[in-house]
Amino acid sequence: MNQAIIQLCLPFLLIAAGMFLLAGLIWLFFNHGIDKLRHPEEWKDQGSSGERIIYRTLVDQMHVPENQILRNVYVPTTDGKTSEIDLLVISKKGILIFECKNYAGNIYGDARRKKWIQYVGKKKSFFYNPFMQNRSHVKHLKKYLEKYGDIPMIPMVTTITRGNWKVKNYSSEDNLLGYNSHLKDILSNTPDSELMAQHFKAILTKLQPLSRPDESVRKEHINQITEVKTKSLNKQL
User: Fold this and answer.
1) pTM of the model
2) What is the C-alpha to C-alpha distance for residues 195 and 149, in angstroms, rounded to an integer?
3) 79: exposed, middle or buried (C-beta count within 10 Å: 0-12, 13-18, 19+)?
């Protein structure tokens, strides 16, 4: 009797197991699961996860060569410090500069003001205007590459589709991807750069060593940020 029941149920169990396996494969495909298994170090926190999603999108959907994408680029500044760029792309149109904000909750910002607000439930926190942050990146990168001329640079802020962003008073150079602009439209409306055609390899070679440097550079950069925040807090007190 038991054997007959088992034989009767076996096809259904096999179908259920197959559907469970298929669901798992679909989850892996649509949630970057395969990449998470292969590169767990890239998904260790909210910030690095957001940067990895942008990286994979550029490679898999935009077909950008991987060697033209640089992450965590520490650009030396004239005062002996560094300016960290989350991700940049060396392209024939210029240098695309991405500031990644993988934030959840409700975000309120004014492109003209320094402080933006994030609400996650009842928790309220402030962060620096990412458009201004990116403009600072552009300034330091242009200075670092000034011997090649006025290289076109396109700053963009990406939210990784998380959160509900409510931003006002955009300027013409403020690109919040998925809200007031889209990457494909930006690229299609941007002409190729003669300067990039002349200096593409030299610029790539100059910037590659700045991407993901050794731990001492990262620690020093964190110390700089901590020092600036401490001074700002002391002024408020």
Assistant:
1) 0.76
2) 7
3) exposed
